[in-house]
Amino acid sequence: MLYTIVKQNSYQDSVNLMLLTNKIATMEGVNKTQIMMGTPANKDIFKTAGLFTEELEAAASNDMCIVVDTDQEEKIQEVLDEVDNYLSNQAIAGSKEAFETVNTWDKAMRALPSANLAIISTPGQYAAEEAEKALDRDMHVMIFSDNVTIEDERRIKEKAHEKGLLVMGPDAGTAVVSGVPLAFANVIKTGKIGVIGASGTGIQEVTTEIDRLGSGVSHAIGTGGRDLADKIGAITMLDGIKALAQHSKTEVITLISKPPAKEVRDEVVQLLQSISKPVVAIFLGEEPHNHEGNVYYANTLEETAAIAVDLAKGNPIKPNYNKLHAEVPAVDLKPEQKTIKGLYSGGTLGYEAATLISRGLNLGETDHDEAGYLLNTNGFQVIDLGDDIYTQGKPHPMIDPDTRIQFFQKAAQDESTAVILFDVVLGYGSHDDMADALIPGIEKIQQETKANGRNIYFVATVCGTDQDPQDLDEQKAKLEKAGVILRDSNNQAALTALAMLDIQIEEVTKELVPAKETAKVEITVSEAIEQLLTEKPSVVNVGLKKFTEAITANGGRVVQYDWQPSAGGNPRLREVLRVLR
Amino acid sequence: MYGQFKTIDEANQAVIDKVVSGAPFLIDVVPAKSVIEELNGKVLLHAGPPIKWENMTSPMQGSCIGATLFEGWASNPDEARAMLENGEIEFIPCHHVNAVGPMGGITSGSMPVLVAENRDGGNRAYCTMNEGIGAVLRFGAYSDDVINRLNWFRDVLGPTLSKALQVKGDGLNVNVMMARAITMGDEFHQRNIAGSLIFLKEIVPFILQTDVNEKDKQDVIQFLADTDQYFLNIAMASTKAVMDSARQIQHGTVVTAMCRNGYEFGIRIAGMGDQWFTAPVNTPQGLFFTGYDQDMACADMGDSAITETFGVGGMAMIAAPGVTRFVGAGGMDDAVNTSNDMIEICIDHNPNFSIPTWDFQGACLGIDARKVVDKGIEPVINTGIAHKEAGVGQIGAGTVRAPLACFEKAIEAYAVKLGLVEAK
Question: A456 vs A14, A384, A421, B187, CA distance in Å?
């Protein structure tokens, strides 16, 4: 039945009334409704809709006409209340976020004129172009993207260096600037230790260890994995070390690197020895035997953090920090169960595990040519599941458990496997509850192997801090409840796994020897870099939106640039645009 | 390479300078065939790029039937349809004869058209008059009411306005009317009520001075008073006159026309002259009258996107707070965002049309096809939505995007023409 209400001299804009009509139409018991001003044209629309009533005939252009088709007369009052409510509450509550979202560089700069750092997480082939646009706007750059050519990397870094700007990356997964975690980073207490490294789980392991040992970090600068290659010549590393050397709140400098090219290494060491502050350095995979002058060399990430913390606290430096200090669990293994499978989501953590296992097995120098494998000898394997070959079209194992569970299963099927060694990396960007995501897979394997009369042991380390968005203690508790043997550091986890197979590592003790006399390098730092290290950064986040969360939650300012490739990434059109410039 | 210009940017600047210096005046209302030579045969003009009968939407076909009946070429709809199907009536795009037409854009020789004269370029452009809403020819209706209204346009409304404009003498300055209306909340596509009121205020004194009989004067003034969108067609003719003058500079990448025929969306850019670059049209999204929904919406039609080409309409969304909620029922923020997006694909702001709600920035000026492709931001067009069946008429209003592919094709063709890339 049709009910008509004519509100005389009650003008409303037609758009309002269409929106109101849509709203009333969704009310329960309303079969159909139309609300319009009583103009002749609108009356025709009522007719077409089959909602014309005699009462409408008399309605004038300035009368609001409400026609409701309902079987329940009592609905009418409800409709009228809703109409009044709607008309008196028309202010639209815009959705407000803590940051603006833009789609061009120009808008980004208008939205955040103070921006001094860009995080680039576009597909690799566009990252160099966007990084240059950021440099052109006098911003420092963190390139999260990988697949940037080394030629592009050199060009960008040279340009940045000339402008007094810093380029972190490419493939910089993590950094902390003035207490603000960038990309996949942990929340670390602020303190006196400045960290510089390739920018992966090496930095995460060292910074979380520093945090756990009660110290804090001033900055963690990520250089990207190729910065120390001779084609780049450590441009970012050198500028970064100088910046930390000048930064008054940084009292200890910590350097994490894979072994660099000889000439590059010499240049870096010369710089380190020119600094008045103590330095801890780890060249992963090397076995240093001495500390030299102000430079302390560490064998493991754990030792790196421990020396840095002792230096920061003014404690004497011990000859060795690498010993296994955890208890070795009793094991019940079949004779053929002799190997460890390291299945890592963090590349540097995996690399360290592979190094330690190699040392334990006295393998000497090993080649890691095989894609994805950090070690693959005599059934001992360490795999970096974050390697490109495992992440093509799949999420990174820090975000998604599936790849890792598959490799757990594969490892369990290998009868030689005694221990599965792995990492759980917390912090911004990582899975909200990786323990929970992995445990069903772990328990299934334990049940199946047990049914076959075997035991497989899971040994792991959780890389994270109490302040991380995930609950560190809860993650640990869940894993331990599932029977995973947990250790505080990756070193301890690897040594535990080895000890369970009765393999020990002979640790060297290091002495402090004077450094060879070399010419001192002059240390100058640009104003822009100095500013980056003294203030919370203002960030243009180009690409992955989730990186904004860590910044806003830790006092940084950010504008989100929802980046899209020029011409949708179409190469022909990009060429057309280039020639039509 | 770019004629007298050193760079594409210089050529583009020259084109937009012509847009800014454009000076359209509404000078007359005359039978279409008196100013468009081609309409003296069995010819109908239509909206958009060239199209065949069989590709026309049902509403556009309905409009053709209506126009055929109106011209007296057929005595009933079936006969009219047969003539159209048999190819007895030739179709020409409005744009090819200095004209633009709303929705179906169907224009026949006896229909009165508004005459806009661009006193900067010395050229003229034409557009039929707005019929109001409901059952109207432009949405494909061809009932007796529709034909009777067209007869009245031909016999009374057109001649009366023509006489009034002759009394005025030197025409009505459209830029002045638009500059005032944009500060009163019009964007000249979805919302024209301020412009229509200003036009009414300007023209009524002259209507009263004509020798037209009292009843007709009364009817004409009443019709203008009732027709909120009357000014849209004045704006269309005027912006067409300005863009046609600007596109005499045949260099650069400024978009000089955008239009749709329900089948294809077509654009022109300055550097490619008369050539159309087309892609399948989108279907508008928006709000619907009761009983209608998105599934019943007809594909995008009409030359009215000449307003967006000029820089108003959807490009000036923020000017018209009253209709912003068509943009996804959002508020002012959405409207600001839309206009801020649109300026990203334009070269400059038009100082002639300052928009108070946009911090008095001028309307968008000069859509650069390169920027559209580079940024992937498609121009937004505010539009009425027709029912996909002829004769039902308007069922809602909303927005639609100009397809990116048109702009991609245009700049690629231009680069090929300049010999900068190989043709594919």
Answer: 71, 21, 11, 72
Nearest CA in chain A to B133: A41
Q: Is B420 on the interface with A (CB under 8 A)?
A: yes
Instruction: Count contacts between A and B (CB, < 8 Å).
Output: 101
What type of residue is A116? Answer: N
Q: What is the pLDDT of residues A367-405, one digit of tens each?
A: 666 778 999 999 999 999 988 888 877 788 998 899 999
User: Position A551: which residue type?
Assistant: I
CA atoms within 13 A on the CB side of B96: 19
pLDDT at position B214 is 97
CB within 8 Å of B62: residues ≥ 6 apart = B104, B139, B140, B141, B142, B390, B391
- The partner residue sitting opposite B291, judged by closest CB among A15, A49, A91, is A49
Tokens of A198: 């390739």
**Domain A101-322+519-568 belongs in CATH node 3.30.420.40:** no
C-alpha–C-alpha distance, residues B301 and A507, integer Å: 80
Torsional sign, CA A343, A345, A347, A351: negative
Report CB contact under 8 Å: B411, A19: no
Angular region, A549: left φ>0, alpha ψ -120 to 50, beta rest: alpha
pLDDT in tens, A400-440: 899 999 999 999 999 999 999 999 999 998 999 999 999 99
Contact B256, B270 (CB under 8 A): yes
Helix (H, G, I), strand (E, B) or coil at B176: helix
Taking the C-alpha atoms of residue A421 and residue A346, their distance in angstroms, rounded to an integer, is 12
**Measured distance CA(B233)–CA(B134) in Å, rounded:** 17
Q: Give ranges for CATH 3.40.50.261 in chain A.
A: 101-322+519-568, 339-500
Q: Note if the bond before B159 is cis, omega within 30 degrees.
A: no
Question: In the block, which residue shows the tokens 């084109």?
Answer: B15
For helices A490-500 and A347-360, give the axis angle rounded to 10 degrees. Answer: 40
Contact A576 B373 (CB under 8 A): yes
pTM for the full predicted model: 0.74
Q: Where are the CATH 3.30.70 domain residues in chain A?
A: 2-88
Rounded to 5°, the CA angle B415-B421-B424 comes to 100
Task: Determine the length of chain A.
Answer: 581
Question: Which stretches within A28-172 are classed as H helix?
Answer: 40-48, 54-57, 75-88, 105-111, 124-136, 150-163
A2-88 fold = Alpha-Beta Plaits (3.30.70)
Distances (CA, A) of A445 to A407, A476, B191, B388: 11, 19, 67, 60
Q: Cα–Cα–Cα angle for B27, B28, B30, nearest 5°?
A: 155
CB B383 within 8 A of CB A543: no
pLDDT at A285 over 90: no
The domains located in chain B, with CATH, are: 23-234 (3.90.1710.10), 250-417 (3.90.1700.10)
* Interface contact B412, partner A, CB < 8 A: yes
What is the tens place of the pLDDT at every residue in A496-521?
Answer: 999 999 999 988 889 889 988 778 88
DSSP letters, B310-339, are: HT-GGGGGGG-GGGGGGTTT--HHHHHHHH
Which of B38, B42, B55 has its CA nearest to residue B89? B42
Contact call for A103 and B344, based on CB within 8 A: yes
Residues A339-500, CATH architecture: 3-Layer(aba) Sandwich (3.40)
